[in-house]
Amino acid sequence: MKIGFLGGSFDPVHFGHLIAAQDAYEQHQLDRLFLVPAAQAPLKPDDVQCSTEDRLAMLHAAVEWDDRFEVSDYELRKGGVSYTIDSVRHFRELFPDDQLYWIIGGDQLPKLHLWKEIEELAKLVEFIFLERPGHPVKATPAIPGLRLHRCDGHLVEISSTELRERIRLGLSLDYFVPHKAIVHIAEKRLYR
């Protein structure tokens, strides 16, 4: 079985995340895809604005109808800084005989050598990187055993930071965020 994992803060989840997940799922014929919200991303220490419960609730609301996608709360339950190597070890224990793929943006390729225990990580998981069609692959540091798979996707320029600012300005999230997640944000008065 081929299983993909897409990590992120999802603060809030938006269509850019979901389109990336769908592109990787379809182009690499994955059997399962987990969205993995980070407790705290190591390279973005002050990025999370919302509680773990609310981020998890928004993610579930966004994909509960779609049986292609699942949500893992592993990093949220674990707490602290969310290093990919820790998560991949966890998932490797759960799925010892399956092919595991960690999905990243193409902009992460030049920074992969900065990831914690990247050589060990490269042994445990393959990477799918998202890139715009026709765009050249960004330079990647030499990492022994690194297995990369390109995914030409519909990369949408939406950032959670921008969305939080739209909320503060009283602007609509329609066409950026799944409706059920918008309802959750409004009901809980998040990001105000």
Annotation keywords:
single chain, 192 residues, alpha/beta, 6-stranded parallel beta sheet, 6 strands, 35% helix, 18% strand, globular
Please tell me about this protein's structure.
Helix 2 (52-63) packs antiparallel against helix 7. 35% of the residues lie in helices and 18% in strands. The mean pLDDT is 93. The chain has 192 residues and is an alpha/beta fold. A 6-stranded parallel β-sheet has the order 3-2-1-4-5-6, sandwiched between helices.
* Assembly level: single chain
From the alpha-carbon coordinates, what is the Rg to the nearest angstrom?
A: 16 Å
Low-confidence stretches: none
Structural class: alpha/beta
Give a count of the beta strands, DSSP E runs of length 2 or more.
6
Overall average residue pLDDT: 93
Order of helices and strands: EHEHEHHEHEEHH
Binned, the helix content reads: 25-40%
Order of adjacent strands in the largest pleated sheet: 3-2-1-4-5-6
- The N- to C-terminal Cα distance equals 42 Å
Bin the strand percentage: 15-25%
Helix segment count? 7
Q: What is the 3D form?
A: globular
Largest sheet: 6 strands, parallel
Summarize the structure.
This protein is 35% helix and 18% strand. By secondary structure, it is an alpha/beta fold. The protein has a six-stranded parallel sheet with strand order 3-2-1-4-5-6, with helices on both faces.
